[in-house]
Structures are given as structure tokens and as C-alpha cells.
Structure prediction request, 241 residues.
Amino acid sequence: MQKGDHLYVSRGLYTHHGIDCGDGTVIHYREGESITRSSLVFFALGQPVQVKDYIVADPPDVVVQRAESRLGERDYNLVFNNCEHFVSWCKTGDHRSDQVNTVVAASVAGGILGGAVLGSAFAAPAIAAAGLYGIGKLLEQAQSTGDPALAQGYLQSAIAQLNTTLQEQQTALNAAQSQANTWEKTAQLALKQGREDLARAALAKRYPYKLEIRKIEAQQAEVEALHRQILGRTLSSNSNS
Prediction:
């Protein structure tokens, strides 16, 4: 194991991931809590530690710097921001989780959210959004009822809930963009005044908001994918009735 390696250990039903800092410590998203730096022994919890290989990854110093930049973050989310998302981003700049993608693919194959109402070609982001935002129950009810009118009612309720979620996400996105723009302007003003130290400090303040913007935009894309599929199915059913 070397500095910047993507480490992972089994936790039984899932794997836990972290970044090797090269000094006997690991930065990882402690399950359900915050991004923390701990000893390799604490990270492993008695399980064998394995290294994930990458065909293309950023230099070790960049990887560790990314990990350190998010120490203390308390925004864990199983679907959108888990330990594997964090480590993949540190290694490549790409925010992804193979664990989530595997579960989603299995859900598609098993028809968990498929069937007569929504069809079996549900996109992975849509299933993730359905599970996270509590839409799954409405979709199950729409699928299981034998009453077409009642099924449409469940779908309309799901659409209304997604519309509310999108509005809340847009409000959060606007706030994050406003803060990022404020610190960007502060940095530009500092540079005009020849204060590079203040400019760097302002850009450091902007950085968490840029991360927040990317995260919210990813969430919006997933919710919008689900919204389009439900709406399209609803319109199709209405035109056939």
C-alpha cells in the first residue's frame, strides 16, 4: 500500500473505502458521520485491507490533498455521497460509486421498479432518486393496483413530490451559487489590489460551495430523470385511454 491508494475493507454486506495518506493513516467517510483521518488499524477493524487498481488516476499528492480538503465534512448520503463516492472523487475527480451502480443494475434486472406501469427500462439515476426521495412506495402502489385511474393518481402524487424536491434543490443551488460568486468576486478584487494571499484565502472559501454545487446538480439530474420517466408514462397512458 502506498500514498494515495484507494483502500477498501469488507463490512459484511458492503465495503468501506478510504484514501491511504502514506503515513499509517487513512482518510475516509466514517459511516453515517463525517470525513475523518484515522489509523489504518481503526479503518480496517480487523479485516484484510485491499487496494483498488485504477487504469487512470491523479498523482498521489493530488489525491491526498483532495481528501484533506474535505476533512470534517458531515454530508454522508448512501446514494449520492457515500464513502466510495468520496474516494473515487479523490482519485480521479469523478464522483461515483460502483456499489450503488451495482445495486441499481440489480434492481433493474429484477424489475423492482419495472412492470406494467413504468416499464422495465428504468434508468439507474431514476431508481436511485426513487429510493432516496420516497417515491418508490407510490410507484409500487401505482403498479400493484388494478384500477387505472387510481394508478394515475399515485403517479400524479409522485410527480408532485418530485416537483417539490426540484424546487427545494434549486433553492439550495441558488444559495450555493450566490456564495461561490461572492467569494469569486472577493478573490478578483484582492488580485486587483495585489493581495494574492487574500485571493487564495477567498478561493479556499469558495471551494466548498463549488463542491456543493456539483453535488446538488448531480442530485437534480437524478430527480429529473425520474420525473421525465414518470411524466412520459403518465402522458402515454392518458393518450391511450
